[in-house]
Amino acid sequence: MVKHISEVSSRPRARITGVIYLLYFLLAIFASLLDSPKLVAYSYVVNALATGCYVTVTLLFYYLFKPVNRTLSLIAAIFSILGCVVTVLAILNVAPAHLNALAFFGPYCLLLGYLVLISTFLPRILGALLVLAGIGWLAYLTPLEQYLSLYIKILGILGEAALMLWLIIMGVNIQRWKEMAGQKRSLYRPGKEPGK
Known about the structure:
This protein has about 200 residues and is mainly alpha-helical. The chain has one domain. Helix content is about 75%, strand content about 0%. Helix 4 (about 70-90) runs antiparallel to helix 5 (about 100-120). It is globular.
């Protein structure tokens, strides 16, 4: 029984991550449709739910990419959580005017893209798209935004949506994920030298 629970908890939850990511997208779109003075209370609630989904996706991504590089996965998660905090503060109209959540989500996409690129269990093209999305989100914070706004949004949505759809449809290469997770575990076993 304990062994079965241990095996289940060590599996990547790629499809679950993809489904929650999709739920985030749908809630974010719905919240933008509610953006009118009469529906502002509903918009706050839906935005809060969307942000909760993104926090969940962030935590699931942390565990998914922890075998690739634990430190980078943690740093990426911290950037995302900070971006979510700024988003909630903006929803409540208490965020400082100069603080934009994309200042955190840009680096998050860059780091996540890099983790995908160096992983062996997801296609590298997804990582490249996420890196471009991260660069786009950061460019959105510059004067280039007024000229490239539409292209930046398309690039960002394309990168994140491609990862989301891949996770739902294909998942990850579980064998390769387990190999990476197993290698990391063996490196941290007490009394075990790396490579033996």
